[in-house]
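Design job #97: recover the sequence.
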């Protein structure tokens, strides 16, 4: 990447005379008493100055002087007896104020509560959801000054106030947890809408409303009994990150003699036949030329990232932690990082992005039952397998020995690989994938089957914004699946946040999701129960969710004809139940006579004794 450095380093980068400290503040009474401060300022480390702090319970253990004189690293121990307050860090003639805050109230109950199968996650891209504050659409001083809703690559002006304005809408839909693409500052020249190129970990994107709005959103979510998931990126940063523009030390990044991209080939990480050079390219290659790869084997990089993760959970009241590009990270580092978060917040939910093809591949990156040398401690993953080799095949492929809904059956049968498949996040689409309504050729029956499956299968269901109003889009390129939610901008002609603004078909799907989402909140069988399924026959797939108090029977007819369902064929789960209620229509029926199911339908029955 030398070429890129010659071109980019230093361009537009000015180091402020006032030294900056990262993390900008910390807390007393953290379980881990150690803290490593990164101090960044002109020549702050020149001549290896001594560093002193005089504050009861705070001890300077070590000072590190990296190759770049603009940096210092200071190792502290904060005694459990230290009280909240302000102290001064003295570095020769320079003094810097630092604050130790009291821990956030309600630790373990009001935040860091974790995301479970009882939740319904809603993923949105804040630039594209709703514009609640026009004053922040374009911010002076930032590199990307675009603002153009007609371009899929420019900023559109959406922000956190826009999200806050629609929390009632989300709550009404049955959503309980919000996951947004990253809200951390991306001061990049272009393509800043997605948020995955951080330029300062400790700044919330001002175009989204900054720290204040992010805290307000956390408050507004928790006030409603809803939860916040943060999207974390450890693998890379944006090329304009201050630690790339002014590297603390020579081995901060993975640098290659000539630009080297990652291969995006996860197999190399677990394949016992893999060439070591392929593995190295996979992990140490850059995600894109604009996203330099961080060297997680550098302990200063590791501390910087781990402390930032803990800082965000405490500072912004985060409940769930989604980890971007999971397997591109150094996996040993990820285990240390996951452990550090879970040590501090035992109920926090972590799930990693595993865009791979194969259940073995995917389970390798989670807590699994595989006999392998490297064991991941990541509790859950984004379940691309039940999408690509599951529901997508079930509704789009003709039934066959290995095709159609047999693929869904096959993929779920591989759940033996995971330690706890209920911790996997299941979904139909996201910001990188074709919108599912387009995947099914805008077929209303297929999309209804898919959403019904999503809300009754095992795992944590996740919706992608606009799915509930049948937004369409194919990733050629990805901007087409990141369009604005109609009604999110004050001058929009239609407002699909309201029933009146939606078409009949959109309301039909919206209401289906709302009914099932609210039903499942109270359903122990769906949220904590077991899963049992029967071999698919003639395109009909029957699965049960059950526990000792409730039995839910799901009948997916993927064939092109009516199918008669004889309840006695499923006697292991239907015996003793004389009646049933159709959860979506409210109809009651008896199990003594067969039920006719329509082509491409999914009937959800609660069995009654
Ligand atoms: Ca705005």
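Job complete. Output follows.
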């Amino acid at each position: 990447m030398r070429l890129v450095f010659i071109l980019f380093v230093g361009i537009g980068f000015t180091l402020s005379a006032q030294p900056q400290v990262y993390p900008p503040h910390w807390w007393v009474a953290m379980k881990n008493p150690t803290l490593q401060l990164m101090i960044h300022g002109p020549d702050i480390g020149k001549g290896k100055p001594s560093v002193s702090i005089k504050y009861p319970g705070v001890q300077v253990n070590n000072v590190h002087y990296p190759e770049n004189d603009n940096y210092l690293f200071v190792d502290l121990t904060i005694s459990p007896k230290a009280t909240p307050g302000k102290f001064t860090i003295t570095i020769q003639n320079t003094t810097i104020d630092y604050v130790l805050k009291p821990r956030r109230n309600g630790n373990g109950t009001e935040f860091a509560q974790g995301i479970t199968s009882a939740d319904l996650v809603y993923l949105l891209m804040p630039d594209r959801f709703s514009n609640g504050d026009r004053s922040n659409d374009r911010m002076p001083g930032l590199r990307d000054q675009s603002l153009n809703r007609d371009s899929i690559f420019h900023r559109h002006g959406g922000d956190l106030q826009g999200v806050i304005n629609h929390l009632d809408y989300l709550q009404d839909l049955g959503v309980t947890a919000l996951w947004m693409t990253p809200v951390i500052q991306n001061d990049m020249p272009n393509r800043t809408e997605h948020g995955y190129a951080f330029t300062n970990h400790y700044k919330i994107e001002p175009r989204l409303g900054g720290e204040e709005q992010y805290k307000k959103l956390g408050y507004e979510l928790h006030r409603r009994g809803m939860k916040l998931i943060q999207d974390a990126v450890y693998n890379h940063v944006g090329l304009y990150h201050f630690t790339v523009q002014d590297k603390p030390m020579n081995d901060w990044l993975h640098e290659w003699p000539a630009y080297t991209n990652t291969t995006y080939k996860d197999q190399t990480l677990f394949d016992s036949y893999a060439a070591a050079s392929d593995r190295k390219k996979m992990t140490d290659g850059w995600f894109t030329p604009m996203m330099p790869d961080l060297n997680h084997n550098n302990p200063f990089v590791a501390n910087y990232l781990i402390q930032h993760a803990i800082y965000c959970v405490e500072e912004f009241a985060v409940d769930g932690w989604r980890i971007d590009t999971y397997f591109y990270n150094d996996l040993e580092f990820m285990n240390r990082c996951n452990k550090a978060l879970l040590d501090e917040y035992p109920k926090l939910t972590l799930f990693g992005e595993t865009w791979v093809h194969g259940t073995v591949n995917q389970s390798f990156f989670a807590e699994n039952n595989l006999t392998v040398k490297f064991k991941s401690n990541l509790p859950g993953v984004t379940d691309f397998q039940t999408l690509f080799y599951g529901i997508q095949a079930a509704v789009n492929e003709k039934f066959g020995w290995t095709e159609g809904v047999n693929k869904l059956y096959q993929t779920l049968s591989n759940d033996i690989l995971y330690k706890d498949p209920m911790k996997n996040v299941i979904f139909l689409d996201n910001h990188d994938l074709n919108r599912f309504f387009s995947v099914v050729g805008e077929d209303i029956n297929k999309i209804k089957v898919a959403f019904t499956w999503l809300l009754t299968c095992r795992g944590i269901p996740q919706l992608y914004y606009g799915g509930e109003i049948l937004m369409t889009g194919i990733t050629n390129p990805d901007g087409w699946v990141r369009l604005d939610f109609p009604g999110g901008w004050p001058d929009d002609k239609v407002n699909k946040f309201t029933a009146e603004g939606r078409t009949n078909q959109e309301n039909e799907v919206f209401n289906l999701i709302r009914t099932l989402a609210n039903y499942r909140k109270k359903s122990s069988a769906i949220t904590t129960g077991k899963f049992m399924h029967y071999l698919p026959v003639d395109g009909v797939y029957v699965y049960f969710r059950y526990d000792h108090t409730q039995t839910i029977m799901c009948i997916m007819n993927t064939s092109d004809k009516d199918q008669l369902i004889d309840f006695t064929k499923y006697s292991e789960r239907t015996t003793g139940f004389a009646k049933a209620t159709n959860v979506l229509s409210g109809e009651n029926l008896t199990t003594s006579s067969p039920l006719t199911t329509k082509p491409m339908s999914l009937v959800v029955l609660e069995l009654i004794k």
